[in-house]
Amino acid sequence: MAKTPETEHPQKAFGWAARDSSGSLSPFNFSRRELGSEDVLIKILYCGVCHSDLHAAKNEWGFTNYPIVPGHEIVGLVTKTGSSVQKFQVGDRVGVGVIVGSCKTCDICQQDLENYCPKVILTYNSKDQDGTKTYGGYSDIVVVDQRFVLRFPDNLPADAGAPLLCAGITVYSPMKYYGMTEPGKHLGVAGLGGLGHVAVKLAKAFGLKVTVISTSPKKEVEAIDRLGADSFLLSSDPEKFKAAIGSMDYIIDTIAAVHPLAPLVSLLKMNGKLITVGLPDKPLELPIFPLVLGRKLVGGSDIGGMKETQEMLEFCAKHNIAADIELIRMDQINSAMERLAKSDVRYRFVVDVANSLASP
Ligand code: NAP
Ligand code: ZN
Q1: Which of 25, 79, 153, 203 is packed most tightly, with the most Cβ within 10 A?
Q2: What's the predicted TM-score (pTM) here?
Q3: Where are the alpha helices (DSSP H) in the chain?
Q4: Whose CA is nearest to atom 4 of ligand 1?
């Protein structure tokens, strides 16, 4: 008889899964693999709710393999370690982000860029080494190879720090790689959601001048007073937009939906860089003339490798950077997802997994 998600592995697990493209989540019994020598068993405390979870739960990218247990901003406690694990001990506070495996041997992995390995294994909706499916952090426990487990610094809060594991590294890595950290330079952050609000905080810690580019007038006061942005540009305000043309050195584009790139490119100075990290479900139109005539660059970036993710956590711990969160119970996830789809979250939902995920 074919094995079910509940019987394919020896360890019982419980979480919330989406079963179809409605994206609606409900309780789900499944199982986790027995610990291999390199594996760590983690009791999940908190899990952030990334917009990628929503894209995936609703199959907006077209490759969701249901049932799917989303969640890739996981903070938890080590409860057991495999025989070769030296890096972690029972009781350690740890984090798991978007990836849980890679080939470990290719050139890319050797450069600590496991996130770009062709054989990368995502935390959910991916094929694990043994051919079974990976399930994410909207669940009670997870088993992860130690290479893909992060030490979670003592002075980072476990709940508000969880979003750093995806939102944080996704904006930190391109800022470093594309040289967007020079103090005094002007960064535009397009889209003030989970990724965007962490980008503002990181950019201020790097000493940049930050302008938030947003469709939500209600976010203006918070962007400046609470998050520390220097200015706010409402994308639907033509006068203010015109005045900002050619004023930015870099823009990080975190917008989750299809949107025009031309206005963002126009905001860049000559030699400016527009780095896109948002993953809309359809292609964006790229205006070539303004790129060519202004020697501007458009690039992309995907989370970060394990070494850089650890570095980012230490940086955030040093600069007291965590997400602004709305803590929810697991059974509030569907209404949270509805609000996330409407850009109505300040600025990341985090599920209080350990205190609200009651097994039936
Ligand atoms: P989020 O919290 O929903 O934030 C996205 C923001 O985009 C919204 O708050 C909103 O900001 C803006 N926005 C949404 N719809 C828009 C529209 N139709 N037109 C213009 N602006 C719109 O999402 P997130 O968790 O930060 O993720 C953002 C995107 O990055 C998602 O597509 C996600 O899948 C992707 N992502 C990529 C990576 C990577 O490695 N590259 C990692 C994580 C996530 P305003 O209200 O300010 O306009
Ligand atoms: Zn994410």
Answers
A1: 203
A2: 0.97
A3: 51-57, 107-110, 158-161, 167-177, 194-206, 220-225, 238-244, 262-267, 288-293, 306-318, 333-341, 353-356
A4: 193
Tokens of 132: 């079974």
**Alpha carbon distance 271, 293 (integer Å):** 10
CA of 33 relative to ligand 1 center, distance in Å: 33
Which atom of ligand 1 lies closest to the CA of 195?
A: 26
Distance 166 CA to ligand 2 centre (A): 5
Dist. CA 232–CA 210, nearest whole Å: 9
Backbone angles phi, psi at 241, to 5 degrees: -65, -45
Render pLDDT for 134-181 as a digit per residue (tens, 0 to 9): 999 999 999 999 999 999 999 999 999 999 999 999 999 999 999 999
Q: Quick one: DSSP state of residue 164?
A: G
**Ligand 1 atom 39: residue of nearest CA:** 302
Residues with CB under 6 A from ligand 1: 50-52, 55, 166-167, 170, 191-196, 214-216, 219, 254-257, 259, 277-279, 301-303, 340, 343
**Taking a C-beta distance cutoff of 8 angstroms, is the pair 304, 115 a contact?**
yes
Q: What spacing in Å lies between the alpha carbon of 274 and ligand 2's midpoint?
A: 20
Predicted local confidence at residue 359, as pLDDT: 59
Which residue's CA lies nearest to atom 2 of ligand 1?
Answer: 193
In DSSP notation, 118-150 reads TT-EESSSSB-TTSPBP--SSBSEEEEEGGG-E
Query: In this model, does residue 360 exceed pLDDT 70?
Result: no
Give the position of tokens 């007291």: 320
CB-based contact 194:326 (threshold 8 Å): no
